[in-house]
Amino acid sequence: MALRLDNLPNAQVNPMANDCLFCKIANGDIPARKLYEDEELVAFWDIAPQAPKHFLVIPKKHLSGPAAVDTDDEALAGRMLRKGAQLARENGVESFRLVFNEGAEAGQTVFHLHLHVLGGRALAWPPG
Ligand code: AMP
Ligand code: ZN
Q1: Using CA atoms, how far apart are residues 43 and 65, in angstroms rounded to an integer?
Q2: Were both Cys, which of 14, 43, 68, 84 would link to 64 (CB 3.0–4.6 Å)?
Q3: Which ligand gives the minimal distance to the CA of 43?
C-alpha cells in the first residue's frame, strides 16, 4: 500500500507540529471555545478578541501560514474562506473582515495557518 502522508499524524508530516498550539487545539489536547468542527476544519473564538465577534478558522492539517498553502491545499483554503463567511453570518455578523497574517512583521504569532474573522463593530482601514 502506498504511503499516504495525509493518513499520518501531524507530527510525522511536519515535526514542528508537535509543539504547535493550534495542532493541539485541533487535536483536542488544549481546550478552546469551538463554534464549528468537521473532519478538515475547526473554528474557535479568539482568546484575545479584537472585535465583539472574533473567531479563527484553522485546518486540522498543519500548514505554517498562508505562504505554505500548496496546490494540493487550494480546496482546503477555499473551504476556510467559505466556512468563515458562513459562520460569521450564522453568528449575526453580516459585515466582517477576513485576515490571514504571514510572518512576524505582519503580526503572525501562531505559525499554524488560521483565518481571522472579525466583526460586530466598524473596522478601520488601512489596518495598523
Ligand atoms: P496571529 O497573530 O495572526 O498569529 O493570530 C493568532 C491569534 O491566536 C491571536 O489573535 C491570539 O489571540 C489567538 N490565540 C492565541 N492562543 C489562543 C488560544 N489558546 N485560544 C484561542 N485563541 C488563541
Ligand atoms: Zn499546527
Answers
A1: 16
A2: 68
A3: 1
Q: Quick check: 16 and 111 in contact, CB under 8 A?
A: yes
pLDDT in tens, 27-51: 999 999 999 999 999 999 999 999 9
Question: For the chain, what are the domain ranges?
Answer: 21-119
Q: Name the catalytic one among 54, 62, 114, 116.
A: 114
64 lines ligand 1 (CB under 6 A): no
How far apart CA 39 and CA 1 sit, in angstroms, is: 23
Question: pTM of the entire structure?
Answer: 0.90
Residue 116: pLDDT band by 50, 70, 90 thresholds? very high
Q: Regarding the domain delimited by 21-119, which CATH topology (the fold level of the hierarchy) does it fall under? A: HIT family, subunit A (3.30.428)
User: Measured from the CA of 108, which atom of ligand 1 is nearest?
Assistant: 4
49 lines ligand 1 (CB under 6 A): no
